[in-house]
Amino acid sequence: MVVGKVSEFIGSLYYLCVTLLRFKNIMKLKNYLLLLALLLVVGVRAQVPSGNKYPKREFRGAWIQAVNGQFRGIPTERLKQILISQLNSLQEAGINAIIFQVRPEADALYASQYEPWSRFLTGTQGQTPSPMWDPMQFMIEECQKRNMEFHAWINPYRVKTSLKNKLAPEHIYHQHPEWFVTYGDQLYFDPALPESREYICKIVTDIVSRYDVDAIHMDDYFYPYPVNGLDFPDNASFARYGGGFTNKADWRRSNVNVLIKKLHETIRGIKPWVKFGISPFGIYRNQKSDPLGSNTNGLQNYDDLYADVLLWAREGWIDYNIPQVYWEIGHKAADYETLVKWWATHSENRPLFIGQSVPKTVQFADPQNPSINQLPRKMALQRAYQTIGGSCQWYAAAVVENQGRYRDALISEYHKYPALVPVFDFMDDKAPDKVRKMKKVWTEDGYILFWTAPKADTEMDKAVRYVVYRFGNKEKVNLDDPSHIVAITRNPFYKLPYETGKTKYRYVVTALDRLHNESKSVSKKIKL
């Protein structure tokens, strides 16, 4: 996604204001800056176009989680069919990226030499699937068949969601119990330990090296959600590693910062086209904690989970951000509209997508039109900002189940036409060469349009997908109009439809690289 200079300027202004507002003897300056910030937000709103009803580029993701137990103990072939059915349904709904949970509790929904098989797959941690299969590899292949991105979703620190859960004998905990801490009823890697960071990076290195993933994804679980009246037990680690910090909260944030930066460097060093994305809790900071925070009253990433998401985006340590704005419009403590507007003006020059709760969206009525749910207003709000490049649905099964006719609305209205994933031009802005030798060939299956892949010197230059457009014979070619996209395919051919043989069309083909840069077009007039 190309992020405008307006958001970059506002991000710089934000941190200038934060610094200035810490001084107590400048009340007039404080009031002036707050007024200026308000005017800028209003100004940006006025400058941003009302939104393309059918954008050609939009991130349309969906989370498929394992922790709800939907996979546990299901026979292999049956589970494969369930996943295929879900992907087919999501593809029909216009979803172009799947975020699939592969490491919920320092375990694996893939064949790992370092961590045991997940209990969320087989029912018992460490138990090998029978017959043996690799869910992550299976999902990658199925996503590629449907031209969906595959984002491998890992939880970095969490080991046990309940102390009652048994760890497999081969679990890393049994080899290095000193790396872990118990907090409430849960077990975590100690984020302060260099050994924890090295181990987590080793896991990511293994995934990125062996699997053709499009991204590594982490959600909102960094330091654990606070247990009332119970501090996270890291005094010993603070005494050992907290040199230079007088404030434990700053030190905790630094621990997570170091991991995020190291993960980003690790991924870039292996496959520079693999993205690293985060889906944090929906509130960065409340205004009562920071004058430039959101007008909300809830738990905070920065203060409670020690996740400085804006810093990560500003420093370029993450490649996209999907805040989980799961509340409804009108929520008293965390209003959806307030938060979407806040995040839209704090994208920090990195792609921003909005995490949507399907159940919450269909559960609540539109405040201005109680006869409908909140999906129309949420989609209009999301598409009103240049800095918001799409959304991700929590959760995939809710879309598949068509809760509140949500899927129907995506198909008929909001995802009516295909969308390409936004470009990540800060990672790579060089488009592949155009396709070669395009021709129509008669086969026993009818006419097929064939072309040859463009030449490529590096993996980053290689064409991995193709976009096929169709226009009327005398129609103006406009590749920005997604209604003319008839196929997005990984194959160097497209089966042409059968018509009367008297109508002439113009077919246009472009190539996409791994980061969705689009080549120049090649066209051919064809009579069908």
TrEMBL record:
Keywords: Signal. It holds the Pfam family GHL10. Residues 58-357 form the Glycosyl hydrolase-like domain. The keyword Signal applies. It comes from the Bacteria. This is Family 10 glycosylhydrolase.
